[in-house]
Amino acid sequence: MSVITERLALLRQEMKARNISAYIITSSDAHLSEYTPLRWQGRSWISGFNGSAGTVVVTLNKAGLWTDSRYFLQATTQLEGSTIDLFKMGVPGVPSIEAFLSSELKAGDVVAADGACLSAQEADDTKRKLAVYGIEYHLCQDLLEAVWRDRPSIPDKPIFLHPEEYAGRTSAQRIQEIRDRLKGQGANATIITMVDELAWVFNIRGYDVSYNPVAMGFGYIGEKEAILFVIPEKVTPEVRDQLTKNGIHIKPYTEIDSFIKSLPSDIRLLIDTKRITHRLFSQIPEHCRKIFGVSVLTQLKAIKNDTELSNLRQVMARDGVALTRFFKWLEEALQRGETYTEHELDIYLNGYRAKGKNFYGDSFATICGYKGNGAIVHYRAPEKGCATVRSEGILLLDSGGQYLDGTTDITRTIALSTPDDEVRTDYTLVLKGHIQIALAKYPEGTRGSQLDILARKALWDRGLNYGHGTGHGVGYFLNVHEGPQNIRTEVNPTELEIGMITSNEPGIYRSGKYGIRIENLVVTELREETEFGRFFGFETVTLCFLDNSLVKKELLTSEEITWYNAYQERVYQTLSPDLSAEESAWLRSKTLPL
């Protein structure tokens, strides 16, 4: 922790030199990413906390980390001895960042942040809240550049193409779709900040971020031009030829600011303030008309085309085969008296997936939580010092794969010995919520927040709950977390549309004892059209057995039992043709009806 205190001291020296009373360091980068290249992992560098979500605030004599319930246990451990206090977001009595600053600072004091790594909306929101207390908010200061002496550079790894056979559209077709959507909203241009949007529209991928096959760059799409702003060395001759063929011009990464500043007066920009940085937004000339709305790229990307969905179903079978072989190996290894650490199981699972066609890598850091570690929602087993898995208790395994033809995200909770009544009850309550989402039938125009209660009611009825969302959007050989849709208690105006991929993952977590989560991916589909309109539902596309030994059948309704047995049978029928006779027999034993 002495390293952390030294870094805080260096930052405070820089703050004093610039007359700054507090500095805010977020988790995102210049592209507002959830997962970032090393260059922009400043919050982790300054604090030692490496969870994917959180904000550090440093004043001249105090420091704090704000993060949500997924990371309370992890943050408590990683901040120990750092002099950085943990502020548990969402817990009654815990102040917001702005409330904390108002109690520590006085009117006229200056709070600063790097506006290149904040969305325009977030920057404006914080500025407005601080202004109530007379506190100034400056957004042009990257103080870490001055104190992070061995700071990594922007990644310059080469870009590669995502072929039409997987994408289902050429980049030229996608650009035209965007132009049509822009025109329908009265706009004729848009700026691209988010790297997953950039990858999607230009059919490119990269190696710049762990787990997410994206490349750092910006983009611009107007009526007559489409531009990719990227470090020139990243573009191979093959990629350049293909982009040029699809009408895409290539400009240096650093020219995005000057390009925006020089936009002519006939430009009508569609701007999503959640998906453009404060820095880029501030470069837009006054003479350009601004039309505010949700990014058309985000909306279009979320709705998968027929090729993508067809490929994804094949990927789910491929992934399910790998998981079946892994769980069979694990069960038999433990029965032989062998033991493995959580970290080792992560490596073994990756190895089983890697044998599959078109495998690129894991889609996120595997969460392998044995017993009490399963209660840490976003647990990452360290290489040294993690738990050893034995033939007792339960194991929570949340993992996923990136394939050229799809992205998977699945959680299974399995018993490694005969489970007790409390575990079986908790598991079945979570299962009931999972099945109710899977069975949901809802009118067109429904939002995820309107369905969330279905996943929680069985838990709420017994005074139980979980602190995370029930579902998030999932990319297609892209980020495992994407918008704009989700299923959670917070209100999100985005409607669920046909072709969207969303996770279905209720859970329950008993600190120090165990965690339970069941996660499948679902695709929104048309179920019925009546005189009252169109009704949608979910196709469950993930294929992996559920642990019968954890289910208390008496707690399930007949409808839930029917769904469960049908799902288990579909898993067996779909996967067994690609398994050996021995593997198929093992899977048959796991998928027998309740």
Description of the structure:
The protein is of the alpha+beta class and 594 residues long. It has three domains: 2-147, Creatinase/prolidase N-terminal domain (Creatine Amidinohydrolase, Chain A, domain 1), CATH 3.40.350; 160-301, Creatine Amidinohydrolase, Chain A, domain 1, CATH 3.40.350; 306-586, Creatine Amidinohydrolase, CATH 3.90.230.10. It is built from 19 helices and 30 strands. The strands form nine sheets. A six-stranded mixed sheet has the order 4-3-2-1-5-6, with helices on both faces. Helix 3 (72-78) links the parallel strand 3 and strand 4 (85-88). The longest helix has 30 residues, at 306-335. The chain is globular. The model has no long low-confidence stretch (mean pLDDT 96).
Q: What's the structural blueprint in terms of helices and strands?
A:
Elements: H1 2-17, E1 22-25, H2 42-47, E2 55-59, E3 63-67, H3 72-78, E4 85-88, H4 97-104, E5 110-113, H5 120-131, E6 136-138, H6 144-147, E7 160-161, H7 164-167, H8 171-184, E8 189-192, H9 195-202, E9 204-205, E10 218-221, E11 226-230, H10 237-245, E12 248-252, H11 256-261, E13 268-271, H12 278-283, E14 289-292, H13 296-302, H14 306-335, E15 340-341, H15 342-354, E16 359-362, E17 367-370, E18 388-389, E19 394-399, E20 401-403, E21 406-407, E22 410-415, H16 421-439, E23 441-443, H17 448-460, E24 471-473, E25 482-487, E26 501-504, E27 507-510, E28 514-517, E29 520-530, E30 533-540, H18 558-575, H19 581-590
Parallel strand pairs: 1-5, 3-4, 5-6, 8-13, 11-12, 13-14
Antiparallel strand pairs: 1-2, 2-3, 7-9, 8-10, 10-11, 15-18, 16-20, 17-19, 19-22, 20-21, 23-30, 24-25, 26-29, 27-28, 29-30
Protein name: Metallopeptidase family M24
Organism: Porphyromonas catoniae ATCC 51270
Family: Belongs to the peptidase M24B family.
